[in-house]
Amino acid sequence: MKTLNRTIRRSSGEKIFDIFNVCFMVLMMIICIYPFWYVICASFSKASLLMGHPGILFRPLGFTTEAYRKVFSNSRIWIGYANTIFYVIAGTLINLVTTVLGAYFLSRKDVPGQKTITVLIMFTMYFSGGLIPQFLNIQQLGLYDTRWAILLPGAVSTFNLIIMRTSMASIDSSLEESARLDGANHFTILTRIMVPLTKPTMAVLVLYYGVGHWNSWFSAMIYLDDHNKEPLQLVIRQILILSSGLSGMGDSDTELIAEAIKYATIVVATAPILVLYPFLQKYFVKGMMVGSVKG
């Protein structure tokens, strides 16, 4: 049998549309990537050359690592890194456990008042008690100036809980029924069926929670007095504020140092999460779309 290769002729309008789409996407890519590239180039540039360079920056001006040496010579950076790694690992683990348990409970069809409980939980997405009541709660519970004040208040994200619940609810109920006939309890069903089948969704939640913990600084600023417990983002915020203050002192050498430190600290805070993202981003579409199509 002969295979007929038919070439579909495209109209000039379709070709123009494709060219426009490609040009538009390239432009959007440049707009998104260039700020990162500028910060990286500026962090490796000599401060004296950077201060006198107006406009666009495509490469480092007089390549130097002086800014990074000054940043990493600050012991608070390393303490902040260690604290942030702890908050990311411990916080994400707490988030996953509580979110999975809550989602499993809400995905059960035989739970009395399940819809009412779901509505009450979703209510917290739109209304909260505010900062002062939350601060008083933390203080009266004895969590103030402890690491638990960073980990426990945000143990469950309602948005992520709903995503996980939808993912579990989309799993064929016949799997659960078969497991029950074999004598499985809720813990076995959760660990042997639900968790393995929702790994893509869990990978998305790991990224969401992990990025949230990595970028978090406001809670630490409110609830922590001990500088040795502060996360990296709060330490870097304080360095940037200090650098901005030094920039207005009128001392040219001090201003140059402050300008170089700003860009180096941004790279130090952002690079680890940018390295991690490509390994998890493949789960994004699959994880977020689980349960969106039924039938």
Ordered list of secondary-structure elements with their pairings:
Layout: H1 12-43, H2 47-51, H3 66-72, H4 75-107, H5 114-123, H6 131-140, H7 148-151, H8 158-169, H9 173-181, H10 186-197, H11 199-215, H12 218-223, H13 232-247, H14 252-280, H15 283-289
Helix pairs in contact: 1-14, 3-14, 4-8, 4-11, 4-13, 8-11, 11-14, 11-15, 13-14
Family: Belongs to the binding-protein-dependent transport system permease family.
Protein name: Carbohydrate ABC transporter permease
Main location: membrane
Task: Give the tags.
flat, MetI-like fold, MetI-like_sf, 0% strand
Number of strands: 0
CATH topology type of the largest domain = MetI-like fold
Strand content: under 5%
Integer-rounded radius of gyration: 25 Å
Number of domains: 2
Helix content: over 70%
Count, helices: 15
Q: What is the assigned CATH homologous superfamily of the largest domain?
A: MetI-like
Measured distance between first and last alpha carbons = 38 Å
Q: Structural class per helix/strand content? A: mainly alpha
Q: Low-confidence stretches at least 5 residues in length (pLDDT < 50)?
A: 291-295
General shape: flat
Q: Tell me, what is the CATH class of the largest domain?
A: Mainly Alpha
Profile the largest sheet. Answer: none
Overall mean pLDDT stands at: 81
Give helix and strand order, one letter per element, not per position: HHHHHHHHHHHHHHH
What is the CATH-assigned architecture of the largest domain? Orthogonal Bundle
